[in-house]
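Box S1 | Example of a co-folding query
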Amino acid sequence: KSDNRKVSQDVLNKTDKHPCYSFEAHHKYARMHLPVAPACNISCNYCNRKYDCSNESRPGVTSEVLSPPEALAKYKLVKERIPNLSVVGIAGPGDALANWANTRKSIELIQQADPEVIFCLSTNGLMLPEFAPEIVEMGIKHVTVTVNCLDPYLGAKIYKYVKYKGQRYEGSWGAGILINNQLEGIKYLAQFGVLVKVNIVMIPGINDSHIPEVVRKVKELGAFITNIMPLIPADGSVFAEFPQTSKKELDKMRDLCQVDLQQMRHCKQCRADAIGLLGDDRSLEFSCKEKKEPV
Ligand code: SF4
Ligand code: SF4
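Box S1 (continued) | Returned holo structure for iron/sulfur cluster
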């Protein structure tokens, strides 16, 4: 297990009710994703932007996009019908931090209505140096960052561009900014007692042999767990013709990395508006708006 001494007992108690961070919790507690973050600030070659963010979702399903007051209304409705709901996550359909005003407002409204709820954010990490202090101050204790590599030249094969502070950066330049910000952000969050889960998309022939190095690095920075996920080749994406990473390859890699850091093995790559127990999605029961294309 991760040796993260700054994590308080209160956070560990909450984590026991988080279906993604705790294997034992995933049959007992439900989570909901609120799709309040449509825009993204980078372009991953495995994403085609018609679908939800592959940080946290399977392709093929677009989401409705909610305003913060709509998010609160939806939370209340779901909580009423699913009392074992323990976690509210923001996982796209773009990036939670590229839509920070919406993300922050939605969390604040729900926090006011229900101080007990556990919040969870998923991000590509580009804006973490900017917003990690606010995340800590807001009392958010669970953050997922997708880190696919540590090397900007390798990153140039995974990310097409990065939009940062009004500029667009391509190739290794953009990847370098992204990687630096991810690592700086993870370190900061872990230092302040946030449990950081690192998602890694395993792309055969691109980053697979590099994954153990990523796991060791994020462990050194204080990450709590890593979640090695299969590449799901999305139509229209650069990796559309790549084979989907097999379960066997995935398990082998997880076994290898388990020596360094605990591995999540029950991720369902949920959609950005998923609701319910993991693997038992009830989002269609609660859909209340017309579907919109992500920005
Ligand atoms: Fe797509 Fe997510 Fe990558 Fe943004 S961070 S390009 S939404 S996969
Ligand atoms: Fe949990 Fe994985 Fe679903 Fe995220 S995508 S809510 S980590 S099971």
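The mean pLDDT is 86. The longest strand covers residues 195-202.
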